[in-house]
Design brief:
Two copies of one chain form a homodimer.
Chain A (H helix, E strand, L loop, with lengths): L32 H4 L3 H4 L2 H4 L1 E5 L4 E3 L7 E5 L3 E7 L5 E7 L19 E6 L1 E7 H10 L1 H27 L2 H16 L3 E3 L2 H8 L3 H13 L3 E4 L2 E4 L2 H7 L3 H12 L3
Antiparallel strand pairs in A: 1-7, 2-6, 3-7, 4-5, 4-6, 8-10, 9-10
Helix pairs in contact in A: 4-5, 5-10, 6-8, 6-9, 7-8
The first copy, chain A, binds a DNA duplex through helix 8.
DNA sequence: ATCATTCGGTACGCAAACGTACCGTGCTCC
DNA sequence: GGAGCACGGTACGTTTGCGTACCGAATGAT
């Protein structure tokens, strides 16, 4: 499931996938950083509320306007939240990996999905029913606080992308996206076609191909038929706009309570 | 304070400024639609928690990273929430009028402002201390619910702007902004320089001038040295992208409980 | 009344990104 | 092994918007 990590991606990057503890560990670890940031008492029994679901690429998890039945806490899957415009174009408005959950609405006293979400990079999520989620929001102040802080980071990120889309180049945004996703899958390698990244960024497919070519030439990535490999994370970060670090910081902070 | 309404802007537009009741009315009305959507019991005594502050144009209300001392519920002022990029450019990531409040962070268990906000169109806000805000969040479930639903609409809007900035033209975005602001000030006339709108949209000043010229030619607006007048709202809406209606709908819905 | 400043109309060349298209290659499925 | 398809490299002309600059008009200050 997990690709061989590239030596240039530190396995303990703040937002990368934490190792899941086996039976030898005294403390349960879900693999999702938000849940794992809970105090032990508030994490207690959470394994019974989580169904581990393996999502395949492009599988939908939430539909705009639909009733939200469950909340997904990604482990090594990466989900995309998209907005669909009147002409049918979809643009990614948020990416969620092990540092967050889908959807934010659940923490805002709503049971209707305000956006459509789907699996961008295949992997596992911990799935919790909205009922259980609500019960925990009510019963556990630390749980509620953590979820709300995560929503804050989600809002912050969306706001950052507003500015990013207004001001930064296609190359910068491509690099940013790849950085963010590399952190989230916790691996230097993941599947992604130019076509899909183009849709997510709201640019041409050819534009992504050009950017990918540039990033390959400088030795930051390698691209082979839908499979990206991050060869040099530092170089990739250098090509990305500051939005990568800014958003990353927002999520790291949100986990600190 | 309120300019003569243009005949083409309905005075009872959903998001426009509601009339403030005088002593003749049995029910207190704050002039902010979120607060006024509260059940009478939960609105009780709120006038003692609100200080009516008149903001002048470009006056800051919240600074990124700063401690949040108060929450502002606009009455006829319009506030802008901006993101500042590494090169110093500021881009508007949210606009708040009588349909909302600043800042969302207060409803997400945070007392640190995650963004900078300032007054875009001069007018009044109802200012509540964070302490009182928190007390009401705890004491009144309807209050908390309303605030959280408002945050949901704020997040939705930010996400919409991500897609909007990726896909819509300067003309469409200018028209959208003017529509939104006209609703929020509840008047067909307000002060705004091309320069400022350009900064907010993240485009050139000259680009806004061109768009304003186009909108003037079709008879949608009139522009005179920092003073816009919406002559034909329907025409203006026609020039705007769908994001105007989409976001408007999100906020209207958020007020319904 | 005069002056300085703010604001917006307009224009120039330029760069980024667009829409589109064509084609080769690698993969998958018979 | 061959057919069909998905994917990406590349290229064309076009459009949009950028950066910049200049100027005149309206406004406000002295």
């Amino acid at each position: 499931m997990r690709a061989t990590p590239s030596p240039t991606v530190a396995p303990d990057t703040d937002l990368s996938v934490p190792p899941r503890n086996g039976a030898v560990s005294a403390v349960f670890s879900s693999g999702n950083r938000v849940l794992d940031a809970l105090p032990p008492l508030d994490l207690a029994g959470i394994e019974h509320d989580l169904e581990i679901v393996t999502l395949s690429a492009h599988q939908f998890t939430h539909s705009i306007g639909g009733t939200m039945h469950h909340v997904d806490f990604p482990i090594d899957a990466v989900l995309s939240v998209v907005a669909t415009l009147a002409n049918g174009d979809s643009v990614e408005v948020g990416t969620v990996g092990c540092e967050g959950f889908v959807e934010a609405d659940a923490a805002l006293e709503s049971t209707i999905s305000s956006r459509t979400s789907f699996c961008q990079v295949k992997g596992r999520v911990g799935r919790m029913s909205v009922k259980r989620f609500d019960e925990r929001m009510t019963a556990s102040a630390p749980f509620a606080r953590l979820m709300r802080h995560n929503v804050r980071a989600t809002l912050f990120s969306a706001q950052q992308f507003v500015a990013c889309n207004a001001k930064h180049s296609v190359l910068q945004r491509c690099a940013r996206w790849l950085c963010m996703t590399a952190d989230r899958v916790g691996s230097a390698q993941f599947t992604l076609t130019h076509d899909f990244l183009a849709i997510m960024l709201g640019v041409r497919r050819a534009g992504v191909s050009e950017a990918a070519d540039t990033l390959s030439r400088i030795g930051a990535i390698e691209y082979r038929r839908g499979l990206v490999t991050v060869l040099d994370k530092a170089l990739l970060e250098g090509a990305a706009c500051e939005c990568y670090q800014t958003c990353r910081h927002a999520f790291v902070t949100s986990l600190l309570g």
